[in-house]
Amino acid sequence: METRSSKRRRIAQILENEANSAIDRISDLPDDVLHQILFLVPIKCVAQMSVLSKRWKLLWSTFPDLDFTTLNPFDISSKNLKFSNHEKQKNHSLDSTPMDFITQVLSVRDKHSDIRVLCFRGGLGFSRLNSLFRSAIKHNVRELDIEVTTSVTKDDYFNFPRCVIGSESLRVLKLKSGFRLPPSSIMRDGFQSLHTLSLSLVILYNQPYLSDLFSESSFPLLKNLHLDMCFGLKYLHVGCRGLKDLSLDKCFQLHGLDISCAKLEKMRVTSSFDAYSKKSWVRINAPKLEHLFWQHNAVSDTTVFEQSNFLREAYVGFFAMKGAIGMDKVHSVNSFLSGLSHAGSMVLESQTIEILSNKNFFIPPFRNLKSLELNIGFSKSNVRGLACLFRSSLMLHTLIMKIIKDYKIEKKVLL
């Protein structure tokens, strides 16, 4: 099977052969079509082809999709990248680092051409990072996907690029590194055009509250939100009316989560919440929720989960320290499961069943549940939890039981 890299090299060779042939059919294609073709090859090859003719030089200076993730930091040198004499004179020499190459690419860009996508992975300093953001915003970038290298500590981080906050062109923003958010007063009312926001390794040690950031006024058009490893985050409120997809991963210090989104369809929360907190809470109000993935999250002390009539599938897995399951946490798990009463398909991890087995509780009937998968340990202590679930699953058609021993599936039983 042809790999993606070999496919890109083959396409690049075809383009170069056609461009050098006596009958140049490719150069007669519209710019939009050629830009789409060039998007399939590494950006280094696109730069090399800019010397073939004036036509290809124009295509290079207006190329809208700048994906620098294909760069090999050990393979960018003057001997394998060729520029025209004019570009050499303007840049004096081609530097040897990926960031120098990116800087030169942006410097020869047509000032009237917009950037559709800009992606970068690698290490760079604060000043160059800000320069990269300013250049992208200047060219009305629509999608920014930036990952920079830094050690994530309280004293080593990048300040959040404020120039992107007021951008009217930006639709997708993905940042991964030790970025530190500015105060909510600065972020608020800024992202008026943003559709997708993904923040990884965000520093929140001195501002653990995001209760007023993800609101209708701050993100009126936001549809997708992903927060990953937000260090120091303790309380999060998400109230974006148009949000449809929410993902929250590895927010270990979270104490409180409040979700109130009228159009939310998909929610994924994994490996979050402080297992040692004594006052943790969860509130979920998502009347159009269809897909829920709740895995390896510490049990909160209180849960309020409004039922969704549109819920199709749910995956539920709780984590609790041994000896830390009191009646408040048992009630919290019971309340969480009660919010899933309209689910059509459900998967429950073993510790969830163990928690329900502590006491006999009556869960409201799962009226639409047709498929139930249980990952359980082979133990008599699970009988109460199983009985509780079976009593509530009145319409069940398919039951899958995976007997787990030492985190390995020993047996699967289909009923």
From TrEMBL:
It comes from the Eukaryota. Transmembrane segments: none annotated. Residues 23-71 form the F-box domain. Signal peptide: none annotated. It holds the Pfam family LRR_At1g61320_AtMIF1. SUPFAM superfamilies: F-box domain (SSF81383), RNI-like (SSF52047). This is F-box domain-containing protein. It comes from Lupinus angustifolius.
